[in-house]
Design a protein that fits this description.
about 300 residues, alpha+beta, Aminopeptidase, 9-stranded mixed sheet, disordered N terminus
Length: about 300
């Protein structure tokens, strides 16, 4: 574990995952992390990092997860989150976008980077129960070698101020996706699994990230208070190509004349045109790392595995 990504580590047996940090405590931990010269972080408002599970800054990530989910699903309080992720805390790592201006985490992706105590991934284990398939059937359907490295995308969370189609929201989300796939490819990750809420899945697919329905089953189900969640699978080697192709498609097929596709509802046509052009730019920047990579610091490979 590098000093850059293990700021304020306590020993494994003493460390306690926390989902209930106060805002002042979040500010204190985040400011200390951002200003520690050993971390050698880039300048600018937003900074992207990958942190280990047993650090104080990881507890900022956990509390951010809880805030986001509890806003939509009231029962997802600190005790619920602690119980839900208890068995895989040691296998968790957090991609975080930190806001230097506000001294907090703008967004978080949590991954389970190896099978848990029972030899499986949480989302995959939960998903097969929901869709009525076995793990072996998932492997066969998606042509997965179970010996290949996989990551389970456990959470994708951004605070309300960092969501939506505005430039700030696009920057934070793009940095999270860029870090995830860059590091996954560096570490030889082949497959990803997730259970994702309908709205988040729609946004993910809109920029071309090729998350496909697990075993081809598009039927939603209720999961952790989400009324419409989907089990999905992704092949890491196809991510950037999917996003790049989406950007190209939007650029080539979004024309000014499209404004009139809605007849007399020109306002709707303009809104749709602007949305597609913005998505093309976001997807293009994501695929190429434009305006993103200089704000991201990822650990060296010997320290990352």
């Amino acid at each position: 574990m590098s000093t850059a990504f293990a700021e304020m580590v306590t020993s494994g047996q003493d460390f306690q995952p926390r989902y209930d940090l106060t805002d002042p405590k979040i500010g204190q931990i985040t400011e200390a992390y951002l200003n520690n010269p050993d971390n050698n972080l880039p300048e600018g408002r937003f900074v992207g990092v990958l942190v280990d599970y047993d650090t104080e800054i990881a507890n900022v990530a956990r509390t951010t997860e809880r805030k986001v989910f509890q806003e939509v699903f009231p029962s997802n309080d600190a005790e619920f989150m602690k119980a839900e992720y208890h068995e895989i805390e040691d296998d968790s790592r957090f991609f975080m976008v930190l806001d230097r201006q506000e001294n907090r985490a703008a967004g978080v992706i949590r991954v389970q980077d190896k099978p848990g105590r029972e030899g499986d991934y949480k989302s995959l284990k939960d998903a097969v129960q929901e869709i009525g398939k076995t793990t072996e059937e998932v492997y066969e359907y998606h042509n997965v070698n179970p010996e290949d490295k996989a990551w389970d995308i456990l959470t994708l969370a951004a605070l309300p101020e960092y969501r939506g189609a505005n430039m700030t929201g696009a920057k934070v989300t793009s940095m999270l996706y860029r870090m995830f796939n860059t590091q996954a490819k560096r570490e030889g990750v082949q497959n990803t699994y997730a259970i994702i809420d309908e709205k988040a899945l729609r946004a993910t697919r809109a920029i071309g990230i090729p998350m496909m329905a697990l075993c081809g089953i598009e039927q939603p189900f209720e999961y952790l208070d989400s009324k419409r969640s989907y089990a999905v699978y992704g092949k890491v080697t196809e991510f950037w190509q999917g996003v790049y192709d989406r950007a190209q498609d939007l650029r080539e097929n979004t024309k000014l004349r499209d404004i009139f596709d809605y007849g007399f509802d020109v306002k709707r046509g303009i809104k749709n045109y602007v949305k597609h052009r913005a998505l093309a730019k976001v997807a293009g920047n994501l695929a190429m790392g434009t305006g993103l990579d200089e704000h991201i610091v990822l650990p060296a490979l010997p320290e990352a595995a």
